[in-house]
Design goal:
heterodimer, A: 15 helices, B: alpha/beta, Rossmann fold, seven-stranded mixed beta sheet, five-stranded mixed beta sheet, 12 helices, 3-methyl-2-oxobutanoate dehydrogenase (2-methylpropanoyl-transferring) (chain B), Transketolase_C (chain B), magnesium ion binding (chain B), THDP-binding (chain B)
């Protein structure tokens, strides 16, 4: 049976026989973002999962701090920090099975690392020694996508292909609030819903697209409401509540895996740092706003819950900190080594076989480099 | 597999046959686009494929070109070999970002780890009386994007052979189908194993000694007609059909021009910033001492594609080609 047959034929009919295809009510997001930490729901949460999330968040925060420091030392060309958004980054990775795929945007290095990609390889793009430093198939992580929302249709196509092949694979695609204005966001959600593809879209609404606040980006009640127009459920979650993000994503992944189709998840969070190290956030927002969000810090929220329930003692806290420090030290050491560069690589991967024209250009560059090195030896 | 002689066949039929044979030979080949399923495409090139292979292999997509190509990228990432139909040349523009930012460079971005074997079929060019946005020659945009192959057939046999090669290629191919040749007929008998034409080789369609007409796609028959007419003027024209704009077959083109000493590039696309400028430069760089005259171009005017009642003035025709040949400084020869 084809995908279309499974869904049943749809033909529009004129009034009075007209009726909506889908009852919109079950698709609507809740009025309030879903929360777990500090609520009764937290008691249902798996303590091991909460501790894994905590370790991941501490490590993620440290990674952001270290990578930002590397920009100041000239070891990274640029770094878009996700400080304040670690709950979304880590929960996204942990909500997936190994066979699933992650489609990150450029701010999602933490999710890429949490998925198992080497922390140095994940920074290749931002160091500038190549574009993608890891093998996407090894960890089932697509390249970090710089053009906004363009990776979303890729996630849909991959999930659709996996389903056609009979494979039990879900794709989780990440995008920001600004990215929801792009045409590719619309097309991806529409294709996903029409094909009932096993995809989960995670929008991290961090308040800003560089400098532009959400109010200038959309007039929708929430970004999660956009789901209804495509015929998929929208979920709203507190993006700084790691347990809540994980639960909502895990449910959406399960739903996709069971053939229930795509889900749009909006996680409300906040970009505590500037857009990148090259940005000056004081030009478009005040310190008091940032301070308000610091009080709702994802690590602090989780730590309070764990400590209150006796699930995290000082030794465990220290172990998480030590692990993060070790990761940072290793990252620092390896990033301080110069990346090996080979100009011949410029021509190696444009086509399966270089065209005659590219061969000629490669020979030209080689001759220039040979002449340079001869000159420098004189 | 037995072959059935289709004799004579149209280019559209040869393309259909190529898609069918590719799908039969390789279960990872998927056809997708607007109206390609039940209808068989507005030009009927995908006719019968959904019936034979099912809707999951020949899929009517939502009407959104960026979505079509973007999802094809994901399908290729998972190991499928999508063949995407863009309904018309000018309808392909919404897919440009996917094409340029991802399709053309995914292999490069990932150091060869993630090639994208996607064929993008684009009916192109004018001469069919189409109203605006149905007749563009957009090949210059594609040629200017590293990472893409750009292929265009001019004969029924090449339509089959080049499309099979494009689908088999591990690189993305923009496969430009000259609309007004869809219904051109030729005796053609599909061979087994199939005649797969290698991508990147031009072919001499007509040998001649006086001058070379360098052309491709819809302008090939026009150039052949011009070459016949030129005999009355005493010119024996050679016609080179490029077949592939990327990679470009410098060798075949330069060998021809060195023999004839004169060249005219002919295409429908506008002249300014068009393929002809690149081709003329390449010929000049390689054949300068063999040239008896500057390389000339006969191209479409540098105007938005004209309305159908005026398009005959825009399209390069026999007279305009012969005028250009006449300006190749013949007096200097004597």
């Amino acid at each position: 049976m084809t995908v279309m047959e499974q869904r049943g034929a749809y033909r529009p009919s004129p009034p009075p026989a007209w009726q909506p295809r889908t009852d919109p009510a079950p698709l609507l997001p809740d009025a309030e973002p879903y929360r777990v930490l500090g609520t009764e729901a937290a008691e249902q949460a798996d303590p091991d999962l909460l501790r894994r999330l905590y370790t991941g968040l501490v490590r993620g925060r440290r990674y952001n701090v270290q990578a930002t420091a590397l920009t100041k030392q000239g070891r990274l060309a640029v770094y878009p920090s996700s400080t304040g958004q670690e709950a979304c980054e880590v929960a996204a990775a942990l909500a997936l099975e190994e066979r699933d795929w992650l489609f990150p945007s450029y701010r999602d290095t933490l999710a890429v690392v949490a998925r198992g990609v080497d922390p140095v390889a994940a920074l290749t793009l931002l160091r500038g020694d190549w574009h993608t430093g890891y093998d996407p198939r090894e960890h089932r992580v697509a390249p970090l996508s710089t053009p906004l929302a363009t990776q979303l249709p890729h996630a849909v196509g991959l999930a659709h292909a996996a389903r056609l092949k009979g494979d039990d694979v879900v794709a989780l695609a990440m995008v920001g609030d600004g990215g929801t204005s792009e045409g590719d966001f619309h097309e991806a959600l529409n294709f996903a819903a029409v094909w009932q593809a096993p995809v989960v879209f995670l929008v991290q609404n961090n308040g800003f697209a560089i400098s532009v606040p959400l109010a200038k980006q959309t007039a929708a009640p929430t970004l999660a409401h956009k789901a209804v127009g495509y015929g998929m459920p929208g979920r709203l979650v507190d993006g700084n509540d790691a347990a809540a993000v994980h639960e909502v994503l895990r449910d959406a992944v399960r739903r996709a895996r069971e053939g229930g189709g795509p889900t749009l998840v909006e996680a409300i969070t906040y970009r505590v740092d500037a857009h990148t190290n090259a940005d000056d956030a004081t030009r478009y927002r005040g310190d008091s706003e940032v301070e308000t969000w610091r009080e709702h810090d994802p690590i602090a929220l989780l730590e309070r819950e764990l400590t209150g329930r006796g699930l995290l003692d000082e030794a465990a806290r220290e172990a998480a900190r030590d692990a993060a420090e070790a990761m940072a030290a290793d990252l620092r050491a390896r990033m301080n080594e110069d990346a090996p560069l080979d100009p011949a690589d410029l021509f190696a991967h444009v086509y399966a076989e270089p065209t005659p024209q590219l061969r000629a250009q490669q020979a030209q560059l080689r001759a220039e480099l040979d002449a340079d090195s001869e000159g420098s030896h004189r | 597999m037995t072959t059935v002689a289709v004799k004579p066949a149209t280019m559209a039929q040869a393309l259909t046959r190529a898609l069918r044979d590719a799908m039969a030979a390789d279960p990872s080949v998927h056809v997708m686009g607007e109206d390609v399923g039940t209808l068989g495409g507005v030009f009927r090139v995908t006719d019968g494929l959904a019936a034979e292979f099912g809707e999951d292999r020949c899929t009517d997509t939502p009407l959104a070109e960026a979505g079509i190509l973007g999802t094809a990228v994901g399908m290729a990432m998972y190991g499928l070999r999508p063949v995407v139909e863009m309904q018309f040349d000018a309808f392909a523009y919404p897919a440009f970002e996917q094409l340029i930012s991802h399709v053309a460079r995914m292999r490069n971005r990932t150091r060869g780890r993630m090639p994208l074997p996607i064929t993008i079929r684009v009916p192109y060019g004018g001469g069919i009386g189409g109203v605006e946005h149905h007749s563009d020659s957009s090949e210059a945009y594609y040629m200017a994007t590293p990472g893409l192959h750009v292929v265009t057939p001019a004969t029924v046999a090449d339509a089959y052979g080049l499309l099979r090669a494009s689908i088999a290629s591990d690189d993305p191919v923009v496969f430009l189908e000259p609309k007004r040749l869809y219904w051109s007929k030729d005796s053609w008998n599909p061979q087994e194993p199939p005649d797969v034409e290698p991508i990147g080789r031009a072919v001499v369609r007509r040998s001649g000694r006086s001058a070379t007409l360098i052309t491709y796609g819809p302008s090939v028959p026009v150039c052949l007609e011009a070459a016949e007419a030129a005999r009355e003027e005493g010119w024996d024209l050679e016609v080179v059909d490029l077949r592939s704009l990327v990679p470009f077959d410098d060798e075949t083109v330069a060998a021809s021009v060195r023999r004839t000493g004169r060249a005219v590039v002919v295409h429908e696309s506008g002249g300014f910033g068009g393929p002809g400028g690149e081709i003329a430069a390449r010929v000049t760089e390689r054949c300068f001492h063999h040239l008896e005259a500057p390389v000339l171009r006969v191209a479409g005017f540098d105007i938005p594609y004209p309305p159908p009642m005026l398009e005959r003035h825009h399209l390069p025709g026999v007279d305009r080609i012969l005028d250009a040949v006449g300006r190749l400084q013949w007096e200097a020869e004597s």
